[in-house]
Design goal:
- Residues 376-596 form the Histidine kinase domain.
- Residues 265-318 form the PAC domain.
- InterPro entries: HATPase_C_sf, HATPase_dom, His_kinase_dom, PAS, PAS-assoc_C, PAS-like_dom_sf, PAS_4, Sig_transdc_His_kin-like_C.
- It comes from Cystobacter fuscus (strain ATCC 25194 / DSM 2262 / NBRC 100088 / M29).
- The chain crosses the membrane at residues 20-39, 51-71, 77-97, 109-138, 158-181.
- With 601 residues, the chain is α+β, with helices and mostly antiparallel strands.
- The protein has four domains: 2-188, no CATH class; 208-309, 2-Layer Sandwich (Beta-Lactamase), CATH 3.30.450; 313-438, no CATH class; 443-593, 2-Layer Sandwich (Heat Shock Protein 90), CATH 3.30.565.
- The protein is 60% helix and 14% strand.
- The chain contains 17 helices and twelve strands.
- It has helices at 14-42, 49-70, 75-96, 110-119, 121-143, 156-203, 222-232, 248-262, 307-362, 366-378, 383-389, 391-438, 450-459, 462-468, 486-507, 539-542, 560-570; strands spanning 208-212, 217-220, 267-274, 279-290, 296-305, 445-448, 471-476, 482-485, 513-521, 525-532, 574-578, 586-593.
- The strands form three sheets. It has a five-stranded antiparallel beta sheet, sandwiched between helices.
- Helix 1 (14-42) runs antiparallel to helix 2, helix 4 runs antiparallel to helix 5 and helix 15 packs antiparallel against helix 17 (560-570).
- It is rod-shaped.
- 24% of the residues are buried.
């Protein structure tokens, strides 16, 4: 019957499509039956020439109705034409047949059944009423000659048969109506479910469709149709093959996924479509459609366009790499700042020591000693007389003794200043050496003694801590050297120590204290704690402390703690902070795993 369906009827709802198929099939069968009636009547089997004309006319009528329906005529009008032609032909046939039994022929039940199915209960009752009128009244009247041959009610058997025929026709209409009502209620339930399902599928922004065993479309929502049109420039209709690709690798992936779903598995994969102007990335899930016998007869496809998410992930990865590079540079800048600060302080001390040495040398008594020597040289010939009788000579020994003691003290002072000068120069050399030792490529993993690295970081701030009166407490648990990224860990420590120094300075306390602790947390974590009794952190700031750009310092850039948290994450660790609030200090804890180390790239 589908071959006879016009093109504009292929997309009807299942119920209307079924009625259209029944109408077409009934029209073809009725045309064939009418033609058989005409042929058998022409051969003299029954009725003679009148039935030949009726059968031929009915066959032609049904053929014209079939042409009308094939041309796309409305379903209801076509149903009225078919039922009307059947009614007219059957009524004429009953009057031409020699026996009344033809009125109760089984074919008479076809019209009420067909009318109810095609036109509904009420229209079916109208057609059944005409049949009852024909069988129960008109035909008995016709057989009695409308009273001309015998009294109208003389042939009681004809009237009884007519009444029984009418009752049987009404019974057929009633049963067909009950079936039709039940069918309509079921259809209404199905249609309501279909509307809800259609509304559900159309309410989503994701493509959804169902496929048969060959991967052809059965049904799809508007999002899937729109996306298919954008991808391939074609409309998505039932029967369309979903995969239109030429890439063999992608086709193989699609075939394998479809076969797995048809074997009863739920499959999820990423489906990439590269077009001339853009690329689509879909997160696709295939689920089997189960038929009778617990055998998959198709699959449902749920997709999600993750193109923007993939692009965002790529940008985020690039941004993360950029942040890590900036973090490395920030850490280097932080260490360089510490180096310059300490070197600057040492240079100040060097300058002071050099100035004192210069001042002492300029005020030295060595010139007075030279004049005394010249005076002795002048009286070399009468030196005893000069030392005993001359006033200057008698004072000269005491003068030499005084100058000698003064020069000895001056020498001691100069030696002390020179030692301090050398100590400061040595400190500068050590700080520069420390910077050179730790200015290595980020990501390089090596065995690191954590306590030594903490002391190295501390030395970058040590001069400032001493000058500011900050007391340092160390509590180091002995831990074997660990494979760590020295640069990242040093960057975190320098940041935390610098923040602690600022917090202690801002607090204005006299008992400034900085506690450094290293301890193991079971067999899983190494915990490094940097705790101060400085200004503390407000509770509302704790959740934002490691966010990029957030700072509580007036001149802060909000990058130090954020970069430290990223560095800790890169080492598979975590950085957190605890504080009881303003004025109660803060404790920063860096936790690093003790097992499962891998070389970081």
């Amino acid at each position: 019957m589908d071959a006879l369906l016009p093109e504009n009827r292929h997309h009807l709802t299942p119920g209307e499509l079924g009625r259209y198929r029944v109408l077409l099939g009934s029209t073809v069968l009725l045309a064939a039956m009418s033609l058989v009636l005409a042929i058998t009547s022409g051969l003299g089997v029954n009725g003679g020439a009148p039935l030949v004309r009726i059968g031929t006319g009915a066959a032609i009528g049904f053929a014209l109705i079939l042409v009308y329906l094939r041309a796309g005529g409305p379903l209801r009008l076509g149903s009225l034409l078919v039922c009307g032609t059947m009614l007219a032909g059957y009524m004429l046939t009953t009057f031409l047949m020699s026996r009344q039994i033809v009125a109760s022929h089984a074919a008479s039940l076809l019209i009420p059944l067909l009318a109810v199915y095609l036109l509904g209960v009420k229209a079916g009752l109208v057609f059944t009423g005409f049949f009852c009128l024909n069988s129960g009244i008109l035909l008995p009247l016709y057989l009695s000659g409308f009273g001309s041959r015998e009294p109208i009610f003389a042939n009681s058997q004809a009237w009884i048969a007519g009444v029984l025929d009418s009752l049987i026709l009404l019974l057929g209409w009633g049963l067909s109506s009950l079936f039709g009502i039940a069918r309509d209620e079921a259809s209404a339930t199905v249609r309501d479910s279909e509307r809800k399902l259609h509304s559900l599928l159309e309410s989503t922004t994701d493509p959804v469709c169902s496929l048969d065993e060959q991967g052809r479309i059965i049904t799809s929502n508007s999002v899937a149709r729109k996306m298919f049109l954008e991808m391939y420039g074609k409309e998505l209709h039932p029967g369309t093959e979903l995969d239109q690709r030429s890439d063999p690798a992608v086709q193989e992936q699609w075939r394998n996924s479809l076969q797995r779903a048809l074997r009863g598995e739920s499959v999820r994969f990423e489906w990439v479509r590269r077009g001339p102007h853009r690329t689509w990335v879909l997160d696709v899930a295939l689920h089997p459609l189960w038929g009778q016998g617990d055998r998959p007869v198709g699959v449902t496809l749920f997709g999600r366009d993750i193109t923007e998410r993939k692009e965002a992930e790529a940008k985020l990865g690039e941004l993360h790499r950029g942040l890590m590079e900036v973090s490395r540079q920030a850490g280097m800048a932080e260490m360089a700042t510490g180096v310059l600060h300490n070197v600057g302080n040492m240079f100040n001390s060097v300058n002071v020591s050099a100035s004192l040495v210069l001042e002492r040398l300029q005020g030295s008594r060595t010139t007075s000693l030279l004049r005394a020597s010249e005076l002795l040289a002048e009286h070399e010939t009468n030196l005893p007389t000069f030392l005993t009788e001359d006033t200057r000579g008698r004072q000269l020994p005491k003068y030499l003794s005084t100058v000698s003691r003064h020069l000895v003290r001056e020498q001691e002072d100069l030696l002390t200043e020179m030692k301090e000068l050398l100590r400061n120069v040595e400190h500068i050399r050590e700080v520069v050496s420390l910077q050179q030792e730790n200015a290595r490529v980020v990501g390089r993993v090596e065995l690191v003694t954590v306590s030594e690295l903490i002391d190295n970081a501390l030395r970058l701030h040590l001069d400032a801590f001493e000058r500011l009166g900050i007391r340092i407490q160390r509590e180091y648990t002995e831990v074997a050297p660990l494979p760590l990224d020295r640069h990242r860990l040093l960057q975190i420590l320098v940041n935390l120590l610098g923040n602690a120094r600022h917090a202690l300075v801002e607090s204005g306390r006299d008992d400034k204290r900085l506690s450094l602790r290293v301890r193991r947390e079971g067999e899983v974590w190494l915990r490094i704690e940097v705790e101060d009794n400085g200004v503390g952190i407000a509770p509302e700031h704790l959740t934002r402390l490691f966010s990029h750009g957030f700072t509580t310092k007036k001149e802060g850039h909000g990058f130090g703690l954020h970069s430290s948290a990223l560095a800790a994450e890169a080492m598979k660790g975590r950085l957190r902070c605890e504080s009881q609030g303003k004025g109660h200090g803060a404790c920063f804890t860096l936790e690093l795993p003790l097992s499962g180390w891998e070389k970081l790239a």
